[in-house]
């Protein structure tokens, strides 16, 4: 999830682009860069690894006057393909120095395109999937039917790309024009007076104009200082929706939400969708970013998942999925305990280290311990180039984008999705699932982002429930099967955000002690498994709900649509769409995120992005 900006107008493009990048920095800060078209047939680029401040230092070093011009594109990177280095930073320049591009997203077919370019004698300078677009644009512009035609060349390049992308093209022969395109990633046009803007979101240009245009899927837009034209990928006229931005600058940075956490909750459909992109090709699960062979996966006879906090809960779900799909034992261990317990590992053990930040010291030490024991380590990580993936044998990146709220939301759901990809890859390699069964599970996974989007609409209902609950001292969360990790995650969110005592239990365990905690009006969340899944689990949890209701608890029940059996026992009933058993946690977690955020506010903790005593990345053991 990178940030992109573009400008054509009467001001210095460099200043506008750098300012816009500052507003986009929340989208990624592995590197940044700008390209300015100077009007005399040149494009000048400056780019730097690290935060925007590094770019500003570099600009000061080379002198802003060397970057004069009123057409500019800029990029702030959240690294996916390739480490966060100067070379991999955007913009990327074509082999002839005439075309420059910035890109957000993933070009899935970059490997064959890269290969062809190399055959054509083009020297690629970065490890990114993006750079190919710059060279392809130059090739199209320099030769063949599209020679000399910027628009036709850009359309030709776009026609050959697969994946999800926002791309901005500039060409030295065409100062005063930027051509942009979007497929499944965001791009907004800002309409100024005698100037036009492009941004990943409106925060990029809100200080200059409040008039904007939203572009449909697979749209191309050509901006000049006075005009914009929307096309479809085939060059026919396209459509956009003009709107007036009614946010102020602070709201714009959070996408109109009052906190990054709320924004990130709403980004969850994209986080899961982007994590799935490129991992099921021609009917096969592909771990393309995971440097681990099919033969090595086939030899795995035991899996260990090591992680902390929410990432640990995602690992618990991996255990349910992998044991069910692959029929090999999966142990899940809190990372801080792992190496002190002398776990039994060997060369056929796959250790999956799950970490959003990739820097968590406990998880990192667990990785190091696993490696000394000869196990293979696969990192599931959201932060490209961080320590845990660097020290692992292989890595599968989640594509949740930067998570700024300290409490994990979108990264957690992306971890669950990525863990399921690992499970499917193992099932495929070991032959424990037929290809058609894998396809069926994948289809169910692909349906999840749209279903998460449906669940997001429960916000109002959940907020109302939290308000009705008023001041509470404690809260319990119950689940069975895959609902148990969801209960643990719900309790963790409430503890960290509202500073209230909360505990998650396997519902069947209640009668062995915790039921003594139930008293009049105690709120208890119950995550109900699908009645279409393991039948006995559903009826057992219905009994558990009755047991706690009989002792005075108030129940907040999360159940799938059409599950009427639970209705009589719910003080509040939150509906989620139907899904298969293993997929349900990706939906059932969402209402609990809203619930904890609103209870936190009820308790007077308004800054839910920064709960007390916590840090986003825990680099001490
Ligand atoms: C909870 C939360 C933490 C993290 C944990 C691991 O909302 O955010 O429990 O999940 O500190 O962090 P990573 O995934 O960065 O290793």
UniProtKB/TrEMBL annotation:
It is an enzyme of class 2 (transferase). GO terms for molecular function: carbohydrate derivative binding; glutamine-fructose-6-phosphate transaminase (isomerizing) activity. The active site is at residues 2, 616. PROSITE patterns: GATASE_TYPE_2, SIS. The keyword Repeat applies. Its main location: cytoplasm. InterPro entries: GATase_2_dom, GFAT, GFAT_N, GlmS/AgaS_SIS, GlmS/FrlB_SIS, Ntn_hydrolases_N, SIS_dom, SIS_dom_sf. Residues 293-432, 465-610 form the SIS domain. Residues 2-226 form the Glutamine amidotransferase type-2 domain. Keywords: Aminotransferase, Cytoplasm, Glutamine amidotransferase, Repeat, Transferase. Its EC number is 2.6.1.16. GO terms for biological process: amino sugar biosynthetic process; carbohydrate metabolic process; fructose 6-phosphate metabolic process; protein N-linked glycosylation; UDP-N-acetylglucosamine metabolic process. It catalyses: D-fructose 6-phosphate + L-glutamine = D-glucosamine 6-phosphate + L-glutamate. Gene3D superfamilies: Glucose-6-phosphate isomerase like protein, domain 1, Glutamine Phosphoribosylpyrophosphate, subunit 1, domain 1. Catalyzes the first step in hexosamine metabolism, converting fructose-6P into glucosamine-6P using glutamine as a nitrogen source. Homodimer. This is Glutamine--fructose-6-phosphate aminotransferase [isomerizing]. It comes from Corynebacterium epidermidicanis. The lineage of its organism: Bacteria, Bacillati, Actinomycetota, Actinomycetes, Mycobacteriales.
